[in-house]
Amino acid sequence: MIATRERKHGERLAHTKQGRVLPVSAIYGANAAGKSTLIEALATLREIIIGARRPGALLPVFPHLPYGNRKPSKFTLEFIVKETTLIYELEADKQHVIYEALLILKGKQEEYIFERDDNGVSLYGALNDNKLATSYANVIAPNETYLGAIGSAPAINEPLATAAYDWFNRHLIVIYPHSKFVYLPARFDADEVFAAAMNAGLTRADTGISGLALEEMNANALPLEDKQLEQLTADL
User: Fold this and answer.
1) Which residues, other chains included, contact 71 with Cβ-Cβ below 8 Å and sequence gap of 6+?
2) Phi then psi for 118, rounded to 5 degrees?
3) Nearest 10 degrees: Cα torsion 145, 148, 150, 151
4) What confidence tens digit (pLDDT) does each residue in 78-129 have?
5) According to the model, what pLDDT value does residue 103 have?
6) Which of 14, 126, 138, 231 pairs as cysteine with 21 (C-beta 3.0–4.6 A)?
7) 64, 133: one domain
8) Residue 215: predicted pLDDT
9) What is the pTM for the complete model shown?
10) Which residues constitute the domain of residue 18?
11) Does residue 44 belong to any structural domain of this protein?
12) Are 166 and 188 members of one domain?
């Protein structure tokens, strides 16, 4: 998502201390080149961080087959929150988190916010003096991320950890081709500006659809059997 030196449309970019960031990017390649795998990896990382699971439950990771079935999965993600660049690292297998770290990037220097390995969780900066954060570090479950534990706890009161968790929880939204948005027609009906923008976008994208329109219909007029109509009403 980092912009090149190309100057055209520069006014559309987000400017941060680390450079210019693209508002949109495209991934392209041949079939079976790994496009879907990249998206699924992001979704998996998000689920590992924010997902609730019972003690002993397996983590949703899959082995890197070329490296061997017993090799853990590794993630490293660099992202920006509140004009601050953070780095999150995670290494895990199906049973437990092997390594985890959250760092802040300052220029070319990296500073740890926390680091977790076989020896436990090490806290730095404001977290080092945070008694509640220390308590979480002492009782963290093997199949739980420390970022998920402290980021979802408002009482921790560590802005960067909370911002990092919120980025995964609220801003990293994975939309699959089969994803369903049941509230879309309702918004289309209630928001004229949104409806106009959506119709314009469909036209520009050359979908063959010139516009969408909603037409109210009496449910009893639908060609459905009583059981189907009851099911439809229950679903709605």
Assistant:
1) 63, 64
2) -65, -20
3) 150
4) 998 877 889 999 999 999 999 999 999 887 889 999 999 999 999 999 899 9
5) 96
6) 14
7) yes
8) 87
9) 0.76
10) 10-171
11) yes
12) no
